[in-house]
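Troubleshooting log. The previous structure file for this entry was overwritten by mistake, so regenerating from the original sequence record. Sequence copied from the archived sheet and checked twice against the printout by T.R.
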Amino acid sequence: MQNHPTARGMCVFGAVLGTLFSGTAAAQLSDTTQTPNTANAGIHKSLTEQVGAGRGDIMTPGSSLFIIARDPARSIRRGRQIFQRKFTSAQGQGPLTNDGVGDIETDPSIVAGLSDSCAGCHARPFGSAGFGGDVFTRPDSRDAPHLFGLGLQEMLADEITKELRAIRDQAVADAQGGGFAITES
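Regenerated output below.
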């Protein structure tokens, strides 16, 4: 039998595809501070620890902008983990069994069932409870909108608001310093 480059390439391509798609994607990750397990799989910080100081600024330690300015890879990992986090009812969303807290090795229903993370519906290919692109909640399926680029739109509003506040503050300072009356028009 003759060895054809095309046939060999197809075999290699098939092996690569088989390797890539042999496992499922971990779309929803449990919080190991609430659901410890022997594999130590999941997110290793509580939601409070991950949120930290919130958005903050580049000078506020633990805030999103502080981490982005110093370690972009860490901020991407942190955002991905918040996106994939399985939330509890106390956090505003969550599973029905024991509020998602307990030993998942003796009661796997604690982290199963409802889609209780952002990644349960958004972010292809993670969308279908760990595998696939659609969330099959109805026979006609569901294709949740993507979330890429939304942060850029929010940043525009923040930048415009910051500029408007600076203009207002300067107008107030000028009026107070020059003895002018401040009126609304």
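Helices lie at 5-20, 47-51, 64-70, 72-84, 150-178. Archived copy saved in two places this time.
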